[in-house]
From TrEMBL:
Belongs to the UFD1 family. PANTHER family: FUSION DEGRADATION PROTEIN (UFD1), PUTATIVE (AFU_ORTHOLOGUE AFUA_4G04640)-RELATED, UBIQUITIN FUSION DEGRADATON PROTEIN 1. Keywords: Ubl conjugation pathway. This is C2H2-type domain-containing protein. SMART domains: ZnF_C2H2 (SM00355).
Length: 645
């Protein structure tokens, strides 16, 4: 035990008001090492006593003057100390690591939406808590007060390297009701927005994501969260994912690694293999304090500040001060620098920030990357997001990741615990552990197992695994694309599929009336029979009132008056290739032809005329109305006909 003198603030160094970390003289550490060796307890805790008052303290540094201790005012008040009083300090081994901490609110703080996050980000200035203490957390705009209601496993617990079970209690029933009301209000607030390119929105950092239909965006999308008047932009980020589970531990893109300033940006490249047509955007606060921000979405050019905004305008009259970088009039440079060199100091680590007199202790530069910031809290956030290893507990092999960014990418994409809708059972389930084979086939672990159930192929009745049905059906498609194109009767009024053995290419029904079992090596006799049949059709007609054949007198559409005109027309028709033959057909074929003509006018039709004709003969058209007949024909085509290339 040593007695030290309380020195409120020496050497201009300042301790935060609300902390339990003290500054001790260096010889205390030397004495400890010589008495106990280098194997000192971690963390190093001391009991500080003054009269009857006592409390536990941690150590910030061993740098005070010999015989003196510097205490945060919280500790000095607890011990009832005035400057120059004596404090007894003794190292202490028996404060256990905490397992449970219950805090009772003294008032409602509606801006704190997640106490766990808030405390994780802000408890680092304390090493111990004792039941009955008041826990003070100082933020730029207010001091939060909570009563330490319960601690486990002892009345005083150490907070370093612990995984605390944290519980926040209301002070009384009235506050409990108020908390329930505000939390349900908060849940109802801020419905998801449908974000649009080139617009800006006011958003809160909370658990609501916003949806961005990214389909029309080219080539890269930039979203920015304008931090505006926030004291500490490091506390806020934008997280983006391609699924609705976007959260602090599940995102693909984020503004975390980007520079922190008046706006935090996230840029999403459409060319990324992870890109999705729908993006889920979540503004978050790492400190647990909710705030409103302006959120802007646009192309990089629209959002990112252009150089000219920041360019310093130098002219003949102005010059840049080599110390602070300010633009000053040439003739006042001497005066300015006279002041500037005495009062302003530029950060020696090259961030460009200029401070009055000295670089404050709170200004930090990360040793592992080129980030920097201005509050201890932002340093903690930076470390925990960028340089703290994390492992995924939802994956069987508990893979570890270099930092939260890598961890969250895993959680948002391939994690065994990530929920997804199974394409076979259509339930929302975790993806499950996947094998190399499952990954190769682009199935989740669950889908690979779920798809092992069997089903009957609707085409060939073969028993197939669900997950193989798609590729099995593709085989049917492939087979189909090699099918020979059907031959359709050359009679323009007929849609029958023929085997095409006669020379005019007519189906058996259309050829029948012109068939004769006579020797006819050069086809002259057949031709004269066809001529005769055509002339009779044009002059006498087929006698059917429903005939729609324009080359038949019965249809009323025939337009050749004299026999001379008729003969000339028939000679012309038969001398050309047979594709203009127009013989009358029966009533059902007439209806089928009308249906084929109707379908062929569909500009989006993916099937050839010959397949439509085959379809119209395969489908039972009797028992349905017109739209039913069309639907039947289309569904036959989808199932049986190869699509046009
Ligand atoms: Zn200057
Ligand atoms: Zn700096
Ligand atoms: Zn860093
Ligand atoms: Zn995982
Ligand atoms: Zn399933
Ligand atoms: Zn099949
Ligand atoms: Zn025919
Ligand atoms: Zn006719």
């Amino acid at each position: 035990m040593v007695n030290l003198t309380y020195a409120p603030a020496c050497n201009g160094a300042s301790l935060p008001r609300f902390s339990d970390k003290v500054i001790l003289p260096a010889d205390i550490l030397e004495q400890l090492v010589s008495a106990r060796g280098l194997d000192l307890p971690h963390p190093l805790l001391f009991e500080a006593r003054s009269g009857q008052a006592r409390c536990f303290v941690g150590v910030k540094e061993f740098s005070s003057d010999e015989g003196e201790v510097q205490l945060p005012s919280l500790i000095a008040d607890k011990l009832g100390l005035a400057s120059g009083d004596t404090v007894a300090i003794e190292v202490c081994d028996d404060v256990p690591r905490g397992t449970k901490l219950s805090l009772r609110l003294t008032e409602i703080y509606p801006e704190i939406i997640n106490w766990k996050w808030f405390l994780e980000a802000n408890l680092s200035s304390y090493t111990t808590l004792t039941k009955g203490d008041i826990l003070y957390i100082e933020k730029p705009h207010k001091v939060y007060e909570l009563i330490v209601a319960e601690t486990e496993p002892a009345n005083s617990i150490c907070l370093i390297d612990t995984d605390l079970d944290l519980d926040i209690q209301p002070l009384n029933d009235e506050m409990a009701r108020e908390m329930a009301r505000t939390s349900s209000e908060q849940n109802n607030q801020d419905p998801p927005l449908e974000l649009q390119l080139g617009r800006s929105y006011t958003v809160k950092t909370n658990s609501t994501f916003h949806v961005l239909d990214a389909d029309s965006f080219t080539p890269s999308i930039t979203a920015s969260l304008l931090v505006g008047d926030s004291a500490d932009p490091s506390g806020f980020d934008l997280l983006v994912s391609t699924n609705k589970y976007v959260a602090k531990d599940s995102f693909i893109w984020s503004s975390i690694a980007g520079p922190k300033g008046s706006a935090n940006y996230v840029t999403i490249d459409r060319a990324s293999p992870l890109f999705g047509k729908t993006l889920f955007v979540l503004p978050v606060s790492w400190t647990g304090i909710s705030s409103s921000f302006e959120l802007r979405i646009g192309s990089s050019e629209q959002i990112m500040p252009t150089k000219s905004d920041n360019e310093i305008i130098l002219s003949d009259q102005n010059i840049e001060c080599s110390n602070c970088g300010a633009t000053v009039a040439k003739n006042s440079l001497f005066l300015h620098q006279n002041f500037c060199f005495r009062n302003n100091i530029r950060c020696p680590k090259g961030c460009g920030k200029v401070f009055l007199k000295h670089v404050p202790e709170s200004h930090w530069h990360c040793e592992d990357c080129n980030s920097y910031g201005d509050t201890p809290e932002s340093f903690d956030i930076h470390q925990s997001l960028n340089h703290t290893e994390m492992s995924c507990e939802d994956c069987e092999e508990k893979p570890s990741f270099v930092n939260r960014i890598a961890y969250a990418l895993h959680r948002a994409t391939v994690c065994e615990g990530l929920l997804h809708e199974c394409q076979f059972c259509h339930l929302e389930l975790p993806r499950g552990k996947s094998t190399a084979e499952a990954r190769l086939l682009s199935f989740s672990g669950h889908e690979f197992d779920c798809g092992s159930r069997t089903t009957e192929c609707p085409k060939c009745d073969r028993i197939t695994k669900l997950r193989e049905l798609k590729s099995h059906l593709q085989l049917h498609d492939l087979e189909r694309s090699h099918l020979p194109v059907p031959t359709v009767c050359s009679n323009v009024n007929c849609v029958r599929v023929s085997n095409g053995t006669n020379s005019p290419g007519l189906c058996d029904v259309c050829f029948g009336p012109s068939y004769a079992a006579v020797h006819d090596p050069d086809g002259k006799k057949l031709r004269s029979r066809l001529e005769r049949r055509y002339v009779i059709q044009l002059t006498k007609g087929c006698g059917n009132s429903w005939c729609k054949n324009p080359e038949c007198k019965s249809s009323g559409l025939q337009q050749y008056g004299s026999m001379k005109e008729v003969i000339e027309h028939v000679t012309r028709i038969l001398s050309r290739s047979q594709e203009h033959l127009a013989f009358c057909v029966d009533e059902s074929t007439t209806k089928k032809k009308l249906l084929v003509d109707f379908v062929m006018e569909d500009p989006g039709l993916k099937f050839a005329y010959e397949w439509v004709c085959k379809g119209v003969n395969e489908v039972d058209l009797n028992d349905s109305n017109e739209s039913g007949r069309i639907a039947k024909l289309y569904s036959w085509l989808e199932d049986n006909a190869p699509e046009l290339a």
